[in-house]
Amino acid sequence: MKRTLMAAILLGTLALGGCDRVDPDSPQGKRSALFKEMLRVSEDLGGMLRGRLPFDAGRFAEGAVELDNLSRQPWQYFPDERDGRSSARDDVWARQERFQELAREMEAATAALVAASGQTPLRPAQVRPALQQVEDSCEACHREFRAY
């Protein structure tokens, strides 16, 4: 009896735990994956400028291009209406014009980072302001539209 009860509880716990997952093929899953990848790339770039990682001009320039490419992708995965559980506020859907404006600012900031990282020889001081603009554009959108 105890084994059966314990097995039922364990099975129920596992089943409920699986309900918390987001379908990776859903719009929410796709944009979440893109944002996580953007974060990974920007953390590496920031790490190079803040001394956490050694500065490598070639890797930095490649990362800037990758971040620029990634910055243009997640917006297509915000459907017209809210889709399930999301860390985005309802304002994303209610204030689409402002949300798209901030998305374009992010894209402009990442393009400027690519331009700044094309200088040779590339030095951290040359790209620091451009990376700060990228980080500021992320933060601006999060302040308005992300539910913490």
CATH superfamily: Cytochrome c/b562
Report low-confidence residues grouped into runs of 5 or more.
4-8, 10-19
Kindly report how far apart the N and C termini lie.
44 Å
N-to-C SSE string, H for helix and E for strand: HHHHHH
- Major sheet, described briefly? none
Organism: Stutzerimonas nosocomialis
Protein name: Cytochrome c
Keywords: Electron transport, Heme, Iron, Metal-binding, Transport
Binding site for heme c: 138, 141-142
Overall description:
The chain is mainly alpha-helical. The protein has six helices and no strands. The protein has helices at 2-18, 27-49, 57-71, 91-94, 96-116, 124-145. The longest helix is centred in the first third of the chain and has 23 residues, at 27-49. The N and C termini lie far apart (44 Å). Residues 4-8 and 10-19 have low confidence and may be disordered. This is Cytochrome c.
Please name the defining characteristics of this protein:
148 residues, mainly alpha, Four Helix Bundle (Hemerythrin (Met), subunit A), 69% helix, elongated
